[in-house]
Design a protein that fits this description.
7-stranded parallel sheet, about 25% helix, alpha/beta, about 300 residues, 9 helices
Length: about 300
């Protein structure tokens, strides 16, 4: 089989996946006379009618279960059909990308991009009642499109999603499908020297620094944190931060920043320390930048009133 790009669209039922797929295929810059095979694992209210398929040079094949898509089926498709790319519309209650990887089904269909579609108006309720499905889709996606966005909950959505997947790109669309832009979020007064991050604001600051690290370059800050991981390969480097509730009460994760310049012998496990230092940026994976805290002074901190960080 010849390697062909596979675009995966995930999301819960009625989140708007079919609409986004149709908009994508109607974009002349995406189609460019190429033929698309659509594999759909659910049939929502929006359908792929014959006129649309003809206009976009596409055809659709429906499956009830991800398990029905086998390597043998893929080989049959290559023999029977002519196509240049695959778009997969997933069932929101399954994790297709994980299945494809575990069973080796993407050896010849190379995943080009994974997108998840979320109904912004229902996100709070879904996060409460369908937390594991939200987590599974966000964790593996490269782009999350929040449609039906009415302007509320921007920071709530951003912080919760970035806590699950810091590298994900977020797109917000209003009720008309137009993209909503945001001015740079000035969540903290960056003119302060030093910038003291209150315990209650740690989660908000951490997400902001992960999302836009450049604004904190060379910034003098003070945070209250404890040891998360001893980077044993380095004499005076470790990861310090807090524990956070990511997505739901069953998903607790460490969110910390790499710090250098600390005498490890003076750091006790489960004790909090006030870290006073300067933020510098270093290269991370995939061309990203991340914050590194060069500590100038360390003193005993206090245990926060609420040890578990949330993003509400």
């Amino acid at each position: 089989m010849i390697s062909k790009p596979l675009y995966i669209f995930s999301g819960l039922l009625d989140s708007g996946k079919t609409t986004v797929i149709k908009e994508t295929l109607l974009d002349p810059g995406f189609t460019v006379d190429e033929r698309t095979m659509i594999i759909a694992f659910e049939e929502g209210e929006e359908e792929y009618d014959e006129a649309f398929l003809k206009k976009t040079n596409s055809f659709v094949i429906y499956f009830e279960r991800i398990e029905d898509l086998t390597i043998e089926k893929m080989r049959d498709f290559e023999k029977i059909y002519t196509f240049d790319r695959i778009i997969m519309e997933c069932n929101g209650l399954q994790n297709e990308a994980r299945y494809l990887r575990e069973y080796g089904l993407i050896n010849n269909w190379e995943i080009a991009e994974i997108l998840t579609i979320v109904d912004a108006s229902a996100f709070r309720m879904q996060l409460l009642n369908l937390k594991q499905f939200i987590y599974d889709h966000i964790k593996i996606a490269e782009v999350a499109i929040f449609n039906r966005f009415n302007g509320d909950d921007h920071l709530f959505i951003r912080n919760n999603i970035k806590a699950i997947n810091p590298r994900i790109d977020l797109v917000f669309e209003d009720m008309n499908g137009d993209i909503v832009g945001f001015k740079s979020d000035e969540l903290f007064d960056l003119s302060k020297d030093p910038l003291i991050i209150d315990d209650a604001d740690y989660g908000l600051w951490y997400m902001d620094a992960a999302d836009d690290p450049a604004k904190y370059e060379n910034k003098h800050i003070i945070i209250n944190a404890k040891l998360i991981e001893d980077l044993k390969a380095y004499d005076k480097a470790m990861i310090m931060g807090r524990r956070a509730m990511v997505c739901c009460s069953d998903d607790i994760a460490d969110i910390g920043i790499t710090v250098v310049g600390i005498d490890k012998k003076k750091i006790e496990k489960d004790m909090y320390y006030k870290l006073d230092g300067i933020i510098h940026l270093i290269d991370a994976e995939d061309g990203y930048k991340t914050c590194l805290l060069y500590v100038n002074n360390v003193s005993k901190g206090e245990t926060p009133k609420e040890e578990l960080v949330t993003f509400n």
